[in-house]
Design goal:
Number of helices: 14
Strand order of the largest sheet: 3-4-5
Distance between the termini: 106 Å
Largest sheet: 3 strands, antiparallel
CATH class of the largest domain: Mainly Alpha
Shape: elongated
Mean pLDDT: 75
CATH architecture of the largest domain: Up-down Bundle
Length: about 450
Amino acid sequence: MHRHMTRESFLVLFLIISLMWPIHSEISNCVIKREEERCMERIALHKPKDDENFECPWEWDNLTCWEAASVGEVMKVNCPELFEFMSPEEGLGTISRNCTEFGWSEPYPYYGDACMIGDNTTKPDMYYASVKALYTVGYSTSLVSLIAAMVILCRFRKLHCTRNFIHMNLFVSFILRAISVFIKDGVLYAEEDSDHCFVHTVGCKAVMVFFHYCVMSNYFWLFIEGLYLFTLLVETFFPERRYFYWYTIIGWGTPTICVTIWAVLRLHFDDSGCWDMNDNTALWWVIKGPVVASIMINFVLFIGIIIILVQKLQSPDIGGNESSIYLRLARSTLLLIPLFGIHYTVFAFSPEDFSKRERLVFELGLGSFQGFVVAVLYCFLNGEVQSEIKRKWRSWTVNRYFAVDLKQQRHPSLASSGVNGGTQLSILSKSSSQIRMSSPLAETVNLNLPT
């Protein structure tokens, strides 16, 4: 009787949770399943004969695990882990059950009253929906801008150098990170596969391995960008090509080794669910440790670069008053923060369950736009890139004029438009000479001419 009523209450409560928190209904499934498995393991450790001394045996009521108790004993437990996703910053209550001669009583107070904050129950829905929409827009924007930046850097041969090759690898890591996020959301939280935690599929685990590899590679290429810039400022001459070889090994090889070790250890010691939950802290640090190390080293490099910039800006050769120096320094610092991923240091050492909302905003919300910012700063605002695009546009314009002129020569009837071939040719000659003189070399020659 009591068990049947408990199950009915559970179904009603879970339906309310699913309606109020649709984004995290899949997470709720996994949390309940995980808690049930833990409870079953604890029950299995106690032999059945051990329960003969208790009128109320061990029990899983579909939300909480209850230990065996004697008649008259009152058992109290904290609210299930499921409710922490709904009000992570609020203090949750406790649930009690009496052991009577007829068995367990109904839980009191009711789960909905003790574990859910009435006035705040709609806030998580709006909050998580906003975060999901934010990082979806962010990663989509970054993906489009990064692909465009890659096309530009690959298209122009004059832009092929060690510095831009490093930028291109960073772009690829951001592209892979965005793609992996979309794939992970599609596989783990798709409507047709909402019960992914109940089926331990190989494809689901492979998606998580790919996701962690892409994220880790992105962190390491951010670290390489910082290391490369610091090396440029410190060393006058260094073999860039040889360094690029080691940069590639560090950027793509280190994540491969770490993620492979993590996958093997996870397969042997914690092969549960789709590997999207990291309950085993020791195994998780196989991935988190190198990432935190790269973040902190990048932060040290960032401080070192700022010190070097201060020294260079205060040099008499640069000039300028004190306010202009601080303005340049502030501008340089703000540009370096997204390029080095310095904002990740805020939650680098914090526990996974600490400040979940703020962590989501930083790592998913703001982090999703980082690829867009990097593409703008490293490509679209780059002077060399803009010069090459302008040069290509002028070349295309000249070729277009010549094509029109040749077409008019082949078809004289087209010359009746009011501009004859001679006029067209004279315009081309004039524009062509102006184009040639607009090049940097021509400007240098022109400046050296006697006046």
